[in-house]
Amino acid sequence: MATEQSQRGLENGKGQRLARALGWFSHGLGLAQLIAPSDVARLIGVKDDDDNRALLRVVGVREIVAGFGILVRPRPAGWLWARVAGDAMDLTLLGAALTSDNAKRNRVAAATAAVAGITALDVLCATRLRSSRGATVGSAPQDDTRDVEKAITVNRPPEEVYGLWRDFENLPRFMLHLESVQVMGDGRSHWKAKAPAGRTVEWDAEIVDDRPNELITWRSLEGADVRNTGSVRFNPAPGGRGTEVRVKLQYDPPAGKLGASVAKLFGEEPNLQLREDLFRFKQVLETGEVVRSEGSLDGARLRQRPAQPPEDGTER
Amino acid sequence: MKATCWMGRNTVQVQEVPDPKILNARDAIVKITSTSICGSDLHLVDGYVPSMIKGDILGHEFMGEVVEVGKGVNNLSIGDRVVVPFPIACGACNACQNQAYSLCENSNPNAWMAEELWGHSTAGIFGYSHLTGGYAGGQAEYARVPFADVGPLKVPDGVTDEQALFLSDVLPTGYMGAEMCNIRPGDVVAVWGAGPVGQFAIVSAFLLGAERVIVIDRFPYRLQMARDKAGAETINYEETDVLDALKEMTGGRGPDACIDAAGLEAHGHGVAFAYDRAKQAAKLETDRPTALRQAIMACRNGGIVSIIGVYGGFVDKFPIGSVMNRSLTIKAGQTHVHRYMRPLLERIQNGEIDPTFIITHTLPLDQAPHGYEIFKHKQDNCEKVVLKA
After folding, report:
1. Are residues B225 and B313 in the same domain?
2. Residue in A48, A59, A114, A110 with CA at minimum distance from that of residue A83
3. Mean pLDDT highest for which of A35-49, A78-92, A296-310?
4. Which residue, A264, A310, B279, B291, has most beta carbons within 10 Å?
5. Residue A153 lies in domain
């Protein structure tokens, strides 16, 4: 399982790198088509006339837009599909050029082959990114377990950091998708999480391992809506910099409709969500509470609003 | 209340918005008396900083009177007159405890956004896009000040608004720019940009012992202010080749330290400038490093390049070869304002610095859009606009 997961991580990493390369390629090609459409026309063997130059400029703008989208989006699968659509358009245009009278057939054929190759890359890359994204919405074929891992340094001693976490009833203060955690004694607790459309998902959990100021491990019990395990490790940071906190979560969303809503619950990007939870955990320990701005009223990334004071009664 | 809002690229409007309220225990609400427009606000208005949302309240240089405090604020009372630093800092994280306040690890709720662009996040900043937290700014009648037990500095009676206001940003920024130069006796310091930050960088460089300060700009009225009020020698880059002139003025050595107080919208001329303009317009680079490139090329071997002009993202044709082969040191940062406010206030009180010389326009808050207009287009010899709320 570990191998499969690291394999998936690797695929995702490769997909991201390929996406970046394609993003820059889009920029370069787009700029060439904008600035020097005549040269591009000659290079690919179509007639250097007004129509073709104008067409190449339009294609150039499209390339730049797609390139920008790929580069600035954290997960650019959508923009990559835009590139695939663009490739299809190019292939159609080149196909038309191949059959027209005034094109240099060899060059057009070469350009067509090149575009076909790029199309294959675009499709491969978009598919890779989509499947890695799919992994967070419950559609991976063999193994449905999700694994997320994040670390943060908190400028407090391990005892204090461990102490805040060890009382699970504190978790909803900084893990915004949790509605409540109720400690029942005997190392057992009852967890309630918010799901879309006002629904909740609930489960019981038990502590598996508890080493004060060092480590807490827990897992859900039989009958959980979402089978999950988690661990948090506390290590003193070097040079008196506080405590390094490392969290690992693994969860196993059920199939079907509930699975989809659970996936939404953990966010499209569970890594980012956990990172934000830890960020708020640090805020609570270091500053006493979750820090709020006018644009980000509950300190969460999903609900950005203009940086203006809220109307009465609209704050959380 | 009335507030100056970003309504889209090149559109600033004064609008009626809800009054601020306490959102965190360590907040205070300040009734603003004076606020100003910063050169870096122009980067927002010109659309060079991503993540602005229509309706965002602008402004990060402001001062006023405390009218409400949260239950976690024990050092301020209602009625206190305070000036507020532009970075928001918690005072408790590792960065704050090392006095690197603009790198506060807790004050940017949108740290994830900054991490995407910069690798790690910086502190939150008032009125400066959602990338730096989505905080409502201070070009308004009131503002909420988070971590009010850490940031605001009480202003003593006898110090006017005009004397204290620039402690919020441009005075400490110019000072930090000069401080990063490690100035030693005999040093010649060159400053790119004769805007407010550049003027204060000149003043600070002299205070820190510079022998000579040379400023580079293209607006005669700004160069004249730098000559007459700050004591700098001047180069107008539209008339003179800057690199040649600096070599000539320093006996061929080059300035010992170079301060970039221009930032991402620096102007210039020739092919390189056109190249940057085009790439920036096509979003192929976000920043236009005209001044920075020149500062690097001009600096003497082994010298220091200090960057306090704002950059947002990526630049092109960065002369790294010059930096590496000539042993240059680059220092940079958003200003750790909290570190400098108190000592600079003392220098103001004892007459070493008179920061009021940069003020060319004082307008009512209502006229903020006009203020932006004349400041941006350098009309009416505009150097600094103070808004009275």
Report:
1. yes
2. A59
3. A296-310
4. B291
5. 146-287
Q: Identify the CATH number of the domain in which residue B178 sits.
A: 3.40.50.720
Q: Is A155 found in the same domain as A87? A: no
Question: Are residues A194 and A129 part of one domain?
Answer: no
- Chain A CB within 8 Å of residue B5 CB: yes
What is the average pLDDT across B113-142?
96
pLDDT class of B275 with cuts at 50, 70, 90: confident
Sequence length of chain A is 316
The total of structural domains in chain A comes to 2
> A56: distance to nearest CA of chain B, Å?
16
DSSP-derived secondary structure for A56-84? HHHHHHHHHHHHHHHHHSSSTHHHHHHHH
- Within chain A, strands assigned E span 146-154, 178-185, 188-194, 200-211, 215-220, 227-236, 243-252
Give residue B299's identity as a one-letter amino acid code: C
**Rounded CA separation A178/B366 (Å):** 45
Intra-chain end-to-end CA distance of chain B, in Å: 10
Q: Do A307 and B107 touch (CB under 8 A)?
A: no
Specify the pLDDT at position B342.
Answer: 98
Contacts of B111 in chain A (CB under 8 A): 279
Tell me the β-bridge partners of B364: B388
* Percent of the residues in chain B that have a pLDDT greater than 70, as a whole number: 100
Domain that holds residue B17: 2-169+335-388
CA A39 to chain centre: 39
Pair of tokens at residue B87: 């970075």
- Exposed, middle or buried: residue B168 (CB in 10 Å: 0-12, 13-18, 19+)? buried
> DSSP per residue over A252-308, as a string?
EPPSHHHHHHHHHHT-S-HHHHHHHHHHHHHHHHHHSS----SSSTTS-SS----SS
Indicate if B131 and B178 belong to the same structural domain.
no
pLDDT at A201: 85
* A64 has a chain B CB within 8 A of its CB: yes
Please check whether residue A282 lies inside any domain of the structure. Answer: yes
- DSSP 3-state assignment of A149? strand
pLDDT-wise least confident of A183-187, B225-229, B264-268, B358-362: B264-268
Amino acid making up residue B244: D
Q: Which residues of B49-77 are buried (b: 16+ CB within 10 A; e: fewer)?
A: bebbeebbbbbbbbbbebebbbebbeebe
Q: What is the pTM of this model?
A: 0.79
| C-alpha triplet B330, B334, B336: angle, nearest 5° | 110
CA distance A100 to chain B (A): 33
- Using CB atoms within 10 Å of the CB of residue A189, give its burial: 0 to 12 exposed, 13 to 18 middle, 19+ buried: buried
Taking contacts as CB-CB distances below 8 angstroms, the residues of chain A near B282 are 31, 34, 64
CB atoms within 10 A of CB A244: 17
Inform me whether the pLDDT recorded for B57 exceeds 90.
yes
Q: For residues B40 and B104, state if they share a domain.
A: yes
Residue at A306 is within a domain: no
What single-letter amino acid sits at B15? Answer: Q
Q: A61-65, A274-278, A287-291, B334-338: lowest mean pLDDT where?
A: A61-65
A103 within domain boundaries: yes
Same domain, A16 and A116: yes
In percent, the amount of chain A with pLDDT more than 90 equals: 34
- If we measure between CA atoms, which residue out of B204, B224, B225, B202 comes closest to residue B214? B202
